[in-house]
Every structure is written in C-alpha cells, then in structure tokens.
Design brief:
Structural class: mainly alpha
Shape: flat
Helix content: over 70%
Order of helices and strands: HHHHHHHHHHHHHHHEHEHEHHEHE
Strand content: under 5%
Number of helices: 20
Largest sheet: 5 strands, parallel
Oligomer: single chain
Distance between the termini: 21 Å
Radius of gyration: 32 Å
Number of strands: 5
C-alpha cells in the first residue's frame, strides 16, 4: 500500500464519518422544525433543548469534518488517477447505498401513515426529515458520480462498485416489493371470504400497499438503469455485458423465485390431496401459498428472460451458453432436492402404512399427501430440465467439461453420498442394536429405508454421468497433440504439470535451439506452447511463427529484459498453463491446424500468465 492509497483511505473515511454525523444532526433539526410547523412540540423545554443541542453539535462538528475533507478530496482531482480511484468510488456508492436504503424504508412508513394505517404517533416529521435530508445527500452525490461516470466507470474496480450498488438496491427493493405484493394479494383474496371485518381489512391493506409502492418506486428506475447499461451501445456496455456479478445476481433471483414458486405449488397441491383424501381443510390456510405462487412465477419468468438476454449480449458469445447453464443447472438442482425429499417422504409413509399402520392411526393422509405433492411438483421440473441438459451434452460434447456441469454433478454426488452414508450408518446401528438386544423391535426404520431406496439409485445415476464425462474428457484429450517448445529449465515442470492434469494429451517437448526437435514437435500438433525467448529470439523463431494452429506464449524471463507481472516460479506458470489448456478444451474440441501462411515470428499467439 503506497502513500497515496493511505491518504485516500484516511480522506474518504473521514469524509464518510463527517457526512453521517452531518446527516444525523440535520435530520434531528429538520424534524424539530417540522414538528413545530405541523403540531405543538411533544417535549418540554428541557427535551427540546437537548435535541437542539445534540443536532447542532452533530451539524457543526460533522459539517466541518465532511466539508474540510471533501474540499480536500475535490482539490485532489487535479492529481493523476484520483478521479478514477476505487476508494473515491467506494465512498460515493456507500453514501448512495446508505441514503437510498433509508429513503426506501422511510418512504414506505410515511406513505402508510399518509394512507391512515395508524393514528398519528409523531413519526411523520422524523420520516419527512429523513426523506428531505437523505434525498438531498443522495442527489448531490449522484450528480458528483454521474459527472464522470462514462469515463471513470468503463471497467475495473469503479465499474464493479457501481454494480454492487445496483445489486444491493435492486435486491432489497425487489424483496420488499415482492413480499408486500404477496401480502396484498393474500388480503385481497381473503376479502372474498368472511374472515375479517371491513375495518380490519382496510387497515391491513395499507401497510403492504405502501411497501409495494415504495419498493417498486426504488426498484424500477435502478433496474431500468441496469438494463440500459448492458443494452445501450456505450463505453460501459462491453464490460457490463461481461460482468459475472450481474449473472450471479440474476441466477440468485431466478433460484430464489423458483424455490418460492415450487414450494407454494407443492403446498397448494398438498391441500388439494388432503381434501381428496377426505381431510377437512381451511381454505384460508392456502391463500398465502397461492399469492406467493402468483407473485413469484412472473418474477421468475421475467428474470430468467433477462438473464438469457444479457448472456446473448455478452462477449465472448459463450456468455449466452453460460447464462443457459446457470438457469438449467440451478433448476435441476432444485428439482433434484424436491424429488429426493418428496419420494423419501412418500415411501416412508407407504412403508409405515404397510409395516406400522397402528403408529400412523388416522393421520396417514397428511404424510402421504405431502410426499405426493412434493414429488408431483418437483419430478416434472427435474425430468424436463435434466432431459434438456443431457440433450445439450449429447449435441455438444464439450459441455461435459464445463465448470457449471462439474459443479452440479459433484455437488449432487456429494450431497447424495453424505445422505446415503448417514442412512447406512443409522440402519447398521439399528440392526446391530437389535441383534444385541438393545433396541425395541418396534423401532421405525421406514425413514432410513426410504432414504436408501431413493438415494442409492440417484447416487448410481450421477456416478454414471461422471464416468461418462471422464471418458469423454479422456477421448478429447487423447486427440490433442501439443508441442512444448521451452528452455530446458522450464521443460520438466511444465511437461510434468501437463501430463498430471491432462493425462490423455499427446505431448512433444523440444528445446528452442534445436531445429530438428522443433520440426518434429510441430509435425501434426494442434496446439503450440512456447516461451517468449523461443517465440521471438530463438534460432527456430521463424518456424514457430509460421505455425497455423492455436498458440500459447509463456511469460518466461527474457535474458536481457525484465517482465512486469510475470510469474517468477515454475509452479505458478505451470498452474496458469494447465488452467488455460483446460479452458481451450472446454471451449471447443481440438481442430487440426490450418495450412499456415507465412507469418512473422511474433505474429499471433496468446500470452499465458496467472
């Protein structure tokens, strides 16, 4: 950390502390002023004097602290790189985030009071003061950041901080709007039933209505701004379209809304099955799941479409495939969990009906309905999603090697393995206890047996999928011929790493000063890996430059030059190299080299460094 960074940390930390003190003092004073204008003060002279003195002290001290350091920060803009400083952007978006969240909840509460949700309890002046003070602070900092946003936030840390601000504000406001929309819809559905009085109904409607309006009022402009950043042809668009944070946020929203929707549908189906089995049910108990499904399903569909659209706009073109994988594997994982729990619950209750009917008594319908509901909702989701994913894998063999598929397969395998092992241990313990006379014969083993009956076939199916993926990987690697042209001191560690991480690759190693070895290594090779010295200055540089296939250039030290940012250890370079080769294998199957045109020794190539 250099001196300039230390100065910035101090400068913007002090400015933030001063601004928070200033805002707290202004809210106190403005609130008192509004109380005097709208209603007589509730406190006596002593109480009023305490609030005035506290607010004034905060304004004076905080104002001087913020104004002095902010003036210093503004003067520093004449220095190089100050305007694009990540710490300056961090300060700005922290202020915007804090004030916007305060505005969101203050607006919801004030709107509820304005609609008459409760008698005036004296909070209105404080809420109005929050809207006024924090609104001014937000607008000022929005204007400051917006003045140079197009030039400063094109890429890097400033762009990432802007995305974090957008993600947090969108997530909080969407959660508030969605939750209150479901509450409002539930109350609207209950209005059709004689459950509560009209007066209670009106009072209960106001709070969710106010929360919904405030949430949408904050979420909509931020969401539209986020969409414009990635859809409009502007300097910030390329980096925004490549953003992983955007995809992670979209995937989380899709996953959460899918889980809520499937849970709600399962609950509704559970109630329907109970009624089918003759169990008396209260319709009012299922209005909340119905409202949750009606709200979460449109949100899931919309954000899924946005995620897919942004994947198509991103660069490289594989971003669309990444977005599709995120959607597919997340939905498959959710479906797998629902199928496992549903089938295990269903089998448990069926076994109890068969083996221990007396233990269930007359309540067998609930357990059976729950298992059926979960299975009937999750099984189609899991089956359809898995069918499309496996079809995609058959059409595009490179899909077997993608990170998303590996995470999904290994994650599912690990979860199933742990569950099966726990069930086996419980079953073995119970059987041994019975054999030794330490357990009652009436002990219910139905849950353990059900878990094994469901988990073992699923575990076997995922093991087969992983075995197939390994076979496909080995077949692809076996087709790849790699020429490694590096100095002797680098050849051994790099070749060992390639053979260890990619055992099927056909590797041909050559020294850069041996023309015969280089020619033999290049013969039939699809991928050339060479050092900087070999690529530019070795006697065989011309032969390497005319190679027509994919090339990776290693950032190895040059005899008479110093490389900045290059790895200094062979193991670090070997790790970067094997990672890049795996990425190339996952992106597309190996292709034979094209007929090479004459090329300069330094033409083409791709630098390989951590």
């Amino acid at each position: 950390m250099n001196i300039i960074v230390v100065r910035r940390v101090y400068l913007y930390s002090a400015a933030l502390i001063g601004l928070l003190m200033l805002a707290a003092g202004l809210r106190t004073l403005v609130s008192m002023l509004l109380e005097m204008l709208l209603a007589p003060p509730a406190l006596g002279l002593a109480g009023a004097a305490t609030r005035v003195s506290l607010g004034s002290a905060l304004v004076i001290v905080g104002g001087l602290l913020w104004a002095g350091h902010w003036w210093w920060a503004q003067r520093s803009l004449t220095q190089p790189d100050e305007r694009s400083s990540a710490l300056r952007r961090l300060y700005g978006y922290l202020v915007l985030g804090i004030t916007m969240l305060r505005l969101l909840f203050a607006a919801a509460d004030l709107l509820a009071l304005a609609l008459g949700a409760a008698p005036d309890d004296g909070r209105a002046p404080s809420l109005m003061a929050t809207l006024l003070v924090d609104g001014v602070i937000w607008l000022y900092h929005w204007r400051i950041l917006g003045a140079d946003r197009v030039t400063v936030e094109v890429e890097g840390a400033p762009a990432t901080l802007r995305r974090w601000y957008l993600v947090v504000i969108q997530a909080v406001s969407l959660t508030l709007a969605g939750f209150n929309a479901a509450r409002l819809l539930t109350l609207a559905l209950r209005r059709l039933l004689p459950m509560i009085t009209a007066a209670d109904q009106r009072a209960a409607l106001i709070y969710p209505l106010a929360g919904l309006i405030a949430g949408v009022a904050v979420w909509l402009p931020h969401h539209r701004w986020a969409l414009r950043l990635v859809q409009r042809d502007a300097p910030m668009q390329p980096d925004e379209a490549r953003s992983t944070l955007r995809q992670v946020y979209g995937a989380l929203v899709v996953s959460v809304t899918a889980i809520i929707a499937l849970s709600a549908l399962a609950t509704l189906l559970y109630g329907g099955l109970l009624a089918l089995f003759g169990v008396a049910t209260d319709l009012g108990d299922y209005l909340e799941p119905l409202a949750a499904a009606l709200v979460s399903l449109p949100l899931w569909w919309y954000h899924r479409q946005v995620l897919l659209l942004e994947g198509m706009l991103g660069t490289p073109p594989t971003r669309a495939a990444v977005a599709r994988r995120i959607n597919g594997y997340l939905l498959a994982a959710i479906g797998l969990l629902g199928v496992f729990v549903g089938l295990a619950t269903l089998l448990t209750n069926l076994l109890r009906l068969w083996l221990l009917p007396a233990a269930l008594g007359e309540g067998w319908q609930r357990g059976l309905s729950l298992g059926l509901a979960l299975t009937l909702v999750a099984l189609p989701v899991y089956a359809v999603t898995s069918y499309h994913l496996e079809g995609w894998t058959r059409r595009e063999p490179a899909e077997e090697r993608t990170l998303a598929r590996r995470v999904y397969l290994y994650g599912a395998l690990l979860a199933l393995l742990i569950t099966v092992i726990v069930a086996l241990v419980a079953l073995l313990q119970e059987l041994l206890a019975r054999a030794l006379g330490a357990a009652e014969p009436s002990t219910d083993l139905s849950p353990v047996i059900s878990v094994l009956l469901v988990g073992l076939p699923l575990l076997g199916s995922y093991l087969r999928l992983l075995r197939r993926a390994q076979t496909a990987r080995s077949a692809t690697e076996a087709q790849l011929r790699v020429a490694l042209v590096v100095e002797p001191e680098w050849a051994a560690p790099l070749a060992a790493a390639l053979r260890r991480e990619l055992p099927g690759v056909q590797l041909q190693v050559a020294a850069p000063d041996d023309a015969a070895q280089v020619a033999a290594a290049l013969n039939g090779a699809e991928l050339l890996i060479s050092s900087l010295t070999a690529t530019w200055r070795a006697p065989t540089a011309a032969a390497l430059g005319s190679f027509g296939g994919r090339r990776l250039v290693l950032a190895t030290p040059l005899p008479d030059a110093e490389l900045i940012g290059a790895p200094s250890r062979p193991d670090a370079l070997a790790h970067a190299l094997t990672r890049r080769v795996r990425e190339l294998l996952a992106a597309a199957p190996a292709q034979p080299p094209a007929s090479p045109p004459a090329a300069a020794p330094h033409a083409g190539g791709e630098a390989c460094a951590p």
